[in-house]
């Protein structure tokens, strides 16, 4: 049991060190020497767990994705029928998940060279939304499920991206509350006074 805990601790240290180094250099420029020095471990410990830095990063992404799925599913637990109107900020765990893995999200979202991993998370979210929509009891049959899933996935990830890029200035609870308001349709029923709208050219300055 001690060996298992020690191994898990070493792997966590390597993942933390990798995220720190990714703030300083690109993934393909990080060496194993860089990594073990930052984690205060030796090369033998690294090779005991991984064959390459790419394998380590892939495992980190897998960890994040697994926790993302659990966070996404949280509102559905312990209920037979899910309704958006029953959501509250404590049952929405997506933003708590992002904050838990804040170093990962900050690194991936702010690094163009890691865009593939951002796309991977969006695709995961899209698949979760698409799967769930098949179980919606009062669905609008005119809506294309693929387009709906894509729209919602990019919309939610857009909220996450904005939150990350503004330095997590709001609490996870506040972000959850805003998401619930959006999902409840409160912002979709607004009436716009077009007589007071500015010219499109005003947005170009």
From TrEMBL:
Recorded superkingdom: Bacteria
Residue ranges of DNA binding: 31-50
InterPro entries: Homeodomain-like_sf (IPR009057), HTH-type_Tx_Regulator (IPR050624), HTH_TetR (IPR001647), TetR_C_Firmicutes (IPR039532)
Domain named HTH tetR-type: residues: 8-68
Single GO MF annotation: DNA binding
SUPFAM superfamilies named among the record's database cross-references: Homeodomain-like
Keywords: DNA-binding, Repressor
PANTHER family on file: ACREF/ENVCD OPERON REPRESSOR-RELATED, TETR-FAMILY TRANSCRIPTIONAL REGULATOR
Record-given protein name: TetR family transcriptional regulator
Species of the source: Compostibacillus humi
Lineage: Bacteria, Bacillati, Bacillota, Bacilli, Bacillales
């Amino acid at each position: 049991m001690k060996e298992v805990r020690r191994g898990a601790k070493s792997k966590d240290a390597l993942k933390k060190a990798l995220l720190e180094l990714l703030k300083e250099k690109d993934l393909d420029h990080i060496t194993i020497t860089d990594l073990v020095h930052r984690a205060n471990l030796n090369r033998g410990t690294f090779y005991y767990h991984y064959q390459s830095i790419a394998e380590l990063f892939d495992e980190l992404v897998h960890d994040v994705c697994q926790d993302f799925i659990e966070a996404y599913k949280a509102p559905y637990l312990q209920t037979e029928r899910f309704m958006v109107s029953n959501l509250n900020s404590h049952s929405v765990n997506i933003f708590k998940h992002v904050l838990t893995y804040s170093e990962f999200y900050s690194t991936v979202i702010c690094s163009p060279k890691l865009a593939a991993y951002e796309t991977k998370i969006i695709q995961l979210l899209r698949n979760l939304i698409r799967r769930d929509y098949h179980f919606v009891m009062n669905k609008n049959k005119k809506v294309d499920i693929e387009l709906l899933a894509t729209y919602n996935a990019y919309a939610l990830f857009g909220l996450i991206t904005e939150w990350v890029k503004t330095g997590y200035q709001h609490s996870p609870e506040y972000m959850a509350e805003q998401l619930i308001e959006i999902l409840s349709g409160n912002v979709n029923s607004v009436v716009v006074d077009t007589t007071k709208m500015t010219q499109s050219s005003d947005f170009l300055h």
